Hints:
By secondary structure, the chain is mainly beta. It contains one helix and seven strands. It is elongated.
Amino acid sequence: xxQATPFLLVLFLAxxxxxxxxxKCSLTGRWVNDLGSNMTxxxxxxxxxxxxxxxxxxxxxxxxxxxxxLKGTLQKSPNQKGQPTFGFTVNWSFSDSITVFTGQxxxxxxxxxxxxxxxxxxxxxxxxxxxxxxxx
Length: 136
């Protein structure tokens, strides 16, 4: 029985370690926010760079909303522990504006991946005197 104890301990540690692993949050895929906007992120390369598309459900312009390209980067630091920070830019195809997003990818208590972001939208203005109203 003494010889079986180390084996059982190793087996327990191997089986138990699987349950202790932290689920990693992946940006790749289709994301939908609470307003109905959606984005698709293609594969993230080894440097953390990615591209995709964004279709907003809301707009301040009367132009027809169109699918718009996005480009971004993911922080690859080992300190991110599977819940990385990231940033991306959307170049709106239907207006003279561009939006930058920054955020973090989380895995919530239920194992669901969630993105938390902040954004700045910069609209084109005709003169420097109107600069004050160009960023939201």
